[in-house]
Amino acid sequence: MEIIIVDNSDQVSTTAADVIAAHAELGHTLGLATGSTPEGTYRELIHRYRHGDLSFNRCTAFLLDEYVGLPKDHEQTYYCTIRRQLTSHIDIADERVHSPDGTAAHPGEAAEEYERLIARSGGIDVQILGIGTDGHIGFNEPTSSLASRTRIKTLHPDTVRDNARFFEGDESRVPHHVITQGIGTILDSRHLVMIATGESKAHAVRAMVEGPVSAMCPASALQLHQHVTVILDRAAVAELSNVDYYTYAFSHKPQWQGF
Ligand code: GLP
Q1: Which long-range contacts (CB under 8 A, 24 or more apart) does 224-229 make?
Q2: I need a surface site. Which of 32, 57, 248, 256 has the fewest CB within 10 A?
Q3: Is 141 tagged catalytic?
Q4: Active site residue 134
């Protein structure tokens, strides 16, 4: 796990954009996350595309997760969110932007089909991840199997509360069920890029980086992956014990090593 600590959330966004841009230039399959944390990264990628520095025209994209039961054109579906935040502003073909079908009559089957679609397309090259305050990745809440595949999950009440801000603060409007890539599915991506900012994530970041690998903190499963880049701002590292070491290791990283 490589830990990159930068001063603020803007620098998290530009550093994450550097990593994603390197993959996009190779026409790689991108795993996209929603939530507020990646928004700055997406803005930066759009900026680079508009300035002619970057193209996504050979890329395919897969979303991590989706609410079950919202109409597809509801502005809070992740289908709409990722188009609004990123993909409708860049040169990726819309039919190559995939997400789980939260409107399916049989969401369990839709989840299995999504898993097959990812496999058929050759897997995900780089997966962007954010972290929930309870350590969830995608919508894999604490106690999710570390071997789980794409499936239906029930949201933890804390996540419903956290996400109510996207539904005018009304928890009763937040869907309680979701389809999410499993932790095993996420670990199959060839490169994981985790971004976290702000004090509210400091506790979860500590459990992810320095805690034991445990289903109680789904993000701690990243410790089992061989290629993880964690990009954090100062506030998000407030509870880490080994900040000096991570800073030392990154500042001594040979340039040829890349991301
Ligand atoms: C949601 C998403 C996650 C995201 C998390 C944190 O639950 N399913 O993918 O990482 O929220 O979101 P935010 O970045 O808004 O804090």
Answers
A1: 224/146, 224/187, 225/1, 225/187, 225/192, 227/190, 227/191, 227/192, 228/1, 228/2, 228/191, 228/192, 228/193, 228/194, 229/2, 229/4, 229/19, 229/191, 229/192, 229/193, 229/194, 229/259
A2: 256
A3: yes
A4: yes
